[in-house]
């Protein structure tokens, strides 16, 4: 059975392994190398368990952790809040069974309870599966980042 729960420090070894897998997968994708050096946090869990504005969720099949997601609530200049899903990853063999949806639902619920006006998530260009996943979860594009490599 699929599900999600708040991560604990006991999950750290698994979280670190999954974060490495996410980076390995995205490094090979268009836009991935720049994502890794700009958007991805070098240690995504460094202070995540100590901050009220951050949540780490693990996704499970039965009791086995097979994915994770992180979200940070940002204060905007007008005083409103925006949730930003920094990372969401499910092991390839555990995809398309509802684990990612359970993680996304928990992250969005956290943002709603924090009074966010919305939630952002990133899908790299050409990653149709990620784009479709987020669209099924109710996300729509609000901006496109254009880039020119030099």
Count of beta strands: 5
Shape: globular
**Tally of contiguous helical segments:** 4
CATH topology: the name is Aminopeptidase
Measured as a percent range, the helix fraction is 25-40%
Just name the CATH architecture. 3-Layer(aba) Sandwich
Structural class, from helix and strand content? alpha+beta
Question: In CATH, what is the class?
Answer: Alpha Beta
Q: Uncertain segments of ≥5 residues (pLDDT<50)?
A: none
Total domain count: 1
Beta-strand percent range: 25-35%
Radius of gyration: 15 Å
- Order of strands across the main sheet: 1-2-3-4-5
What does this structure look like?
The protein is an alpha+beta fold and 150 residues long. 31% of the residues lie in helices and 27% in strands. The protein is built from four helices and five strands. Strands 1-2-3-4-5 form a five-stranded mixed sheet. Helix 1 (12-27) packs across helix 2. The chain is globular and about 45 Å long. The model has no long low-confidence stretch (mean pLDDT 95).
Write the layout of secondary structure elements.
Blueprint: E1 2-6, H1 12-27, H2 32-38, E2 54-61, E3 64-75, E4 81-90, H3 99-113, E5 116-121, H4 128-136
Parallel strand pairs: 4-5
Antiparallel strand pairs: 1-2, 2-3, 3-4
Helix pairs in contact: 1-2
Quick summary of this structure?
With 150 residues, the chain is an alpha+beta fold. The chain is built from four helices and five strands; from the N terminus they run E-H-H-E-E-E-H-E-H.
